[in-house]
Design brief:
Number of helices: 7
CATH topology of the largest domain: Arc Repressor Mutant, subunit A
Shape: elongated
Order of helices and strands: HHHHHHH
Largest sheet: none
CATH architecture of the largest domain: Orthogonal Bundle
Radius of gyration: 18 Å
Number of strands: 0
Strand content: under 5%
């Protein structure tokens, strides 16, 4: 593993990199080694910003939709959010249905 000394980087930059590593599936100890900070620092970031909650399926569904709208393929999305291609398909299907229901409700309320 490559060690990155963070003495010149701001805490916000470190936190951003740490979150990216977390989304890639690394644990707090691995992230701490990569960034050259204590693992407690990483755990504090995780707790303060509720990283675990951000990785819940509901948030992943909308993340998948956002990536699809940016032009990524199902395979690219699956790799990025670390789920299977079939799961990406289901997430996109569910979020589209959710959005359609929201738009239908808005249309009925405006009449």
């Amino acid at each position: 593993m490559r060690k990155c000394k963070s003495t010149k980087e701001s805490p916000e930059v470190i936190k951003g990199k740490a979150y990216k590593y977390y989304c890639m599936g690394l644990n707090s100890k691995e992230i701490a080694v990569l960034l050259g900070v204590s693992f407690r620092t990483i755990q504090n970031y995780m707790l303060r910003d509720a990283w675990k909650k951000q990785r819940e399926p509901g948030n992943l569904k909308f993340e998948a939709l956002k990536l699809y709208e940016l032009g990524l393929t199902y395979d690219q999305i699956a790799q990025k959010i670390r789920v299977s291609r079939a799961t990406v398909y289901l997430y996109l299907k569910q979020t589209r249905q959710f959005k359609e229901k929201q738009e239908t409700r808005k249309g009925k309320n405006s009449k």
